[in-house]
């Protein structure tokens, strides 16, 4: 197996989505999961979207994290053209605080699933963690790293809050 071939694709509709999607990338980097990052817009680069989605499975991608904001068609359109699991991240929009993004992504008609995460940073982080969990099913080393990460997170929660302010 080629260890350097990307196993997860992180795509976003615009450069402006990067500050959000960086949180997914950070998780993948932390777990040493080979990945690629691309701008793929459903509206501005539709041909790029079609090529990316149709080639994803043959290129060995095991999950696609797709972030978009506003009329966020990207995750659903990609999912319609690949069986690779698509994890949708609603990016917080200026006009409607990401409610538009969330509803655009989550309300897929039956038949083409998109796993939809929270709006913004939490969603991007959890999409990264979810991709790690998917891959961990067939990767014992990764499973161990994920278990350790979760144990450290639990360990880091103080039992008593610091009284601030
Ligand atoms: C969507 O439109 C992108 O995903 C982005 O969240 C939103 C705004 O894009 P820009 O106008 O900032 O490029 O396609």
TrEMBL record:
Broad enzyme group: isomerase
Pathway: Purine metabolism; IMP biosynthesis via de novo pathway; 5-amino-1-(5-phospho-D-ribosyl)imidazole-4-carboxylate from 5-amino-1-(5-phospho-D-ribosyl)imidazole (N5-CAIR route): step 2/2
Keywords tagged on the record: Isomerase, Purine biosynthesis
Protein's name in the database: N5-carboxyaminoimidazole ribonucleotide mutase
Residues engaged in binding substrate: 14, 17, 44
Reactions catalysed, as given in the entry: 5-carboxyamino-1-(5-phospho-D-ribosyl)imidazole + H(+) = 5-amino-1-(5-phospho-D-ribosyl)imidazole-4-carboxylate
Entry's family note: Belongs to the AIR carboxylase family. Class I subfamily.
Record's function text: Catalyzes the conversion of N5-carboxyaminoimidazole ribonucleotide (N5-CAIR) to 4-carboxy-5-aminoimidazole ribonucleotide (CAIR).
The EC number(s) this enzyme carries: 5.4.99.18
One GO BP annotation of this record: 'de novo' IMP biosynthetic process
NCBIfam families: purE
PurE domain ranges (all copies): 6-157
Organism annotation: Sphingopyxis flava
Gene name for this UniProt entry: purE
